[in-house]
């Protein structure tokens, strides 16, 4: 649209959703009434602000902060904060738009939002990260609240950053009400929240395979990324008897034909989370193949789990995966697959799950963290994991319901988009124009 020039990621996300919704809307024209579609592509509020902070050398640094409060039809705005140099309005608007449908799919009462900054936490000291997070909240705090907008983590924002932001939020609001999820366990965090997105993605892949009469047990898997989502996707694959043979980061990919073991994963987590290092170091320490500047998609596998970032799996990668016999692709990241690559998977009859369905486990457990905080209780690992598993099964069933094809197959892309849209649109229609 002329209204949003230079927002390619946002356009891509809107195009994907609208194309897949269109036949449904033609059959159900009431969903085009009251400007539902026009309202859905316009955030309720988009906040942009300056973040000034002082680095360890005493220099003043200035970053740009954002919060996109996209849609609150079914609950308070909810979605992560991303710290990465690439962050801009287009990327956050695409993420907030997707988040709205994803949150609806969880069945929990959460609206959609997303935020972040072009700040790069890499190479910064803990003290610099703390001062930055505090400076960000000094501005953002007035727009947040447990019934207004509840942020969480995303790329570059883990437990450390959430802790610093939640601490400053508490001070400025003079209230201990939790306005972040993904908190540390000592101040209101939920067990299984760090694992939730990765575990949920694998639970979803397993449901898709089961529905098609297969099982992930014994299958080979390629994972991209090596951050929070990738790490726990690898763990759950191992627990279910699958063999993960790749991992990557923004600099290259590691190929390990023998597959991950719990000891190898512990070493990867140590390098990425504690040393804040690269997968190249991991490959060197374990004597594995490292391919600089490469993605892992040329390795033949049964299941592919893109868990790094947007547009990291393009048409050529999809064609290679298909040629090599991939059966199932479940997105752990948000929009990792480009539009033409998605089309290639769908046309080839591959079991393909869009992130809004397969990676909804993270925000689902964030919703469970909000419930525990409101009750001032803490559930056990088993309780949270069982609820997560049940939510992922339910999302799968909902996708099957709305994505069933005449030939008996399931189009998960359409299923997820229609199921998420119907819930948000019904809530908007019932509340009138606001
Ligand atoms: P992390 O910051 O923990 O990890 C991100 C990983 O992706 C790192 O391995 C990083 O490499 C890699 N990466 C980042 N940018 C690029 C790039 N341009 N090219 C190649 N690799 C890249 O983030 P998360 O694991 O939390 O998030 C990963 C994805 O999952 C994102 O799309 C996020 O939106 C999505 N997601 C996350 C949820 C969560 O609960 N955390 C919930 C739902 C979705 P390097 O280390 O070199 O930077």
TrEMBL record:
InterPro entries documented for this protein: Aminoacid_DH-like_N_sf, Glu/Leu/Phe/Val/Trp_DH, Glu/Leu/Phe/Val/Trp_DH_C, Glu/Leu/Phe/Val/Trp_DH_dimer, Glu/Leu/Phe/Val_DH_AS, Glu_DH, Glu_Leu_Phe_Val_DH, NAD(P)-bd_dom_sf
One GO CC annotation: cytosol
Keyword Nucleotide-binding annotated: yes
Keywords, sorted A to Z: NAD, Nucleotide-binding, Oxidoreductase
Residues binding substrate, per UniProt: 78, 99, 102, 153, 366
Domain of life, source organism: Bacteria
Reactions the enzyme catalyzes: L-glutamate + NADP(+) + H2O = 2-oxoglutarate + NH4(+) + NADPH + H(+)
SUPFAM superfamilies: Aminoacid dehydrogenase-like, N-terminal domain, NAD(P)-binding Rossmann-fold domains
Gene3D superfamilies recorded: Glutamate Dehydrogenase, chain A, domain 3, Leucine Dehydrogenase, chain A, domain 1, NAD(P)-binding Rossmann-like Domain
GO biological process terms held by the UniProt record: glutamate biosynthetic process
Binding site for NAD(+): 197, 228
Occurrences of domain Glutamate/phenylalanine/leucine/valine/L-tryptophan dehydrogenase C-terminal (ranges): 190-432
Molecular function via GO: glutamate dehydrogenase (NADP+) activity; nucleotide binding
Catalytic residue list: 114 (proton donor)
Pfam family, one: ELFV_dehydrog
Positions marked as site (Important for catalysis): 154
UniProt-listed NCBIfam families: PRK09414.1 (NF006929)
Family from the record: Belongs to the Glu/Leu/Phe/Val dehydrogenases family.
Protein's job: Catalyzes the reversible oxidative deamination of glutamate to alpha-ketoglutarate and ammonia.
Quaternary state and interactors: Homohexamer.
Protein name (record): Glutamate dehydrogenase
Species classification: Bacteria, Pseudomonadati, Pseudomonadota, Betaproteobacteria, Burkholderiales
The encoding gene: gdhA
